[in-house]
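Listing S7. Sequence submitted for prediction.
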Amino acid sequence: MRPRMAESVVNFEMGRRRPHTSLKNWCILLVSWTLQFPRQFCFLVATASVILSCYPIVFFGKSFLSPNNSPATHLLYGRMNTVRGYDDTTNDGEVGADFGASMWYSWPTSVVESRALLRDHELPLWNRFDCTGVTLLGQGQSMFGDPLHILILLTNGSAAAWDLKYILAKLLFAFSVGLCVLTATKHLPAATIIAASSPFIGFFCYRYNHPAFFSFCYAPLILLCWLKFVEAPRGPRTAFWLGAMAVANWMVLNSGTVKEAYVLLLAMNLCGLLCLLFTPSAGDKSVKLLQVLFLQAMFVLIATPIWLTFLRTLKKSWTASSAGGVWQLQPSLFIGLFDDIFYRQFNASETNLDPSANFLTLVAVIWFFVSCGTADKKNVARALSITCILALATVFGIVPPRLIVRLPFLRNILHIDNTFSCVAIVCLLVLAGFGIEAFWRDCRAADFKKLYLRMAVVLVLLLAVYAGTAQAGQHSTISLFKAGEHLAPSHFFWGYSSVLVTVALLTPLLGRTVVLAKRFRPWHILSTLALFTLLHWRYGMHLRTPFDRYVMNPHQRVSLIAESSAALRLIKSRSAEPSRTAGVDPSFFPGYGGAVGIEQIDGADPLANSHYRDLMNAAGIKLLFRIWRYEISPERLVADLPLFNMLNLRYILAPATTPLAQVPELKNIASLDLNIYESEHVWPRAFFTNRLFRYEREEQLIEQLKRRGGAPFAAVAKDDLKDEASVNELLNSATSPSSGQYVAATDYRLTTNRTSFNVKVPGPGVIVLTEAYVSHDFRVHVNGKPAHYFRVNSAFRGILAPGAGDYTVSFVYWPRFFTLLLVMAGAGIAILVCWLVVLSRSSLAPCAPIASKHVMTMRPAIEQTRIDLKD
């Protein structure tokens, strides 16, 4: 110990007398560590870059889910501040797309899921709070199964947990893209630059807080697992990366969207398969191919409860994209794929944009394709290029829209442009890593100036094509035509685009100077940071800039659940039996009820119950936002109230500026933060009735409802009676609808998936539950015995009561075959785990540590760095 201590003292004294030498030694140690542990260094760079891109969220209490991020994301009140508990009425101008997707669906759904798990101890399969009940897991967007979503579920959907999830997802994206570049090129500078650049891309501005954010961020994990699997020797490493590939696929599948998630999942696996097929040095290629095909088969088996439940739900549901259609971009707008300012200038709606990468990616990709020395021994770049070209051909109309609308599922995506742009951006970022690696090599080439000139010419040509033809309109479609109106370019556009192009042309020149320099000078670092900032600043978040219209300015994190709302507290305290509530104008917005535990008659769910949709259409209820927000206006309320009574709509919330005194059947029970009106003739949630009749069309049901009104009844569609012989007999002998009786249910017990109640039945009739009907997906028990249910009143559930007595009825949502699907998934997991264990023990070659491989590859660079620093 003493000699070592003496040596340390000597070194300390030498360092104190010769600070310049000590600094060099520290630099040598830092560079050596970096090159020996490249993955750790990439992670540190990615972490720093993500924090910098989200610094208002990390350090200043801002939030991805602040209601003030958009002027239109209303929750409880139809104005800012839209929930109680804060006073900020300002908002960020919308620079992205579909802010409401997270505020009206993803966030409330997470609260419903958390309530199901932590309070009811049930799987979150059903959402009773929207549209008289809709499937939750079957929407394909619940995020249940995403490992990062555990943070949300454990905190009851808090905004802080959501912010952490967004940041962690972005970190996964930056780190995985960097590792993809490092694995494919073995070039640490390229991987580091891409890891630093990827958090600053236009996609994150376009999908500000949309659930597609997570689908996009998880997608590179699939590609990374493929690249690692291709180069892995047999044994534990092969088993590890196959298992990781299954997990990555699972994360994308459950990431919160259907269009982006499923397309990215298929595209990344296609790209990985091409990498395997194109790589001549992948060991026993046929064995690896069989291994990965078996893994994918097991993944499909494991995921059956997710994708098959979604497909069954889709078949029974109405969606906004049912009619089909194609939105594509003009080829002349290709440069917009690298900065959305070029999309924005020729679109009348600045929120109607598309995702993009950044100009550093553009410069690097161009350099890759113009460089003569871009031989890729593993042909990863070829696989990436093919995948990217296929995606770009779909985005920019090379694949004709008439072909797309003939393809199942693809025709229903509609947003072909932004969905397939996501695939292209992931591929382009990794290709940009190849471009940086080629640039690094070409810096020492004699024909560098020629290569630079080629790159500059390609960039100028893209700008010329854009300037000459982009004014013709941004989008082309078949069934939906979205033509952009020409807008005069703003002063910001001219200034920003000019700086962007100038910096893009200067970056290779400065980069070459830095690469060839034997020692770093302060101006090298400062100029590099300046160019990096100019290329990326607009896609980071900011507190305040002179250009807030073009950048993200997230607002304050607040409690989204309005616990201090006196109106909501009063409604929940009066609810001795279940009922529903709606808001006038933008008050009490659809979806918000799920978060506060109050049921609504509408919701932002992508898949709507087709029977409920038909009923509302037949009643002529006007739709706002075209597809899911039902209008409750004072002018139509008198005519619509009989239907609302049948829907168990007891309370209507209205701002003080919208009185409902002209509706005599509504009683104003309180004037608090919102006026509360109660219907005097609302139907109970569940009841027995012997008032029965049949109808042929929903319009006839609405006529009966408005003509008879008053006491509840049960009506059965004529087409349904073919399969309901006992109900048909009861109808033939039933009491006339004009007379008869009904009995309201009591003792309700409601959980996420279950509705139970008691009802005293005086004689033969029907027990009606005014919750959405879905065929075959409910388990019904009457007095503990299984029972059959059928559709009544167009959209709801009924069971036959053959005689008098006390009935205890229980409806539990459990999709048909779901138990079998869970068994299949469990069997798939067991088979996969056993197979991976066996595979990990069947090593035919020793596995060298991954770090040592990089050290061997980069040892000359380490030694050269040491020499340069000593000089």
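Caption to Listing S7: primary sequence and predicted structure tokens for the chain studied. The two ends are 33 Å apart (CA to CA). Residues 159-185 form the longest helix (27 residues).
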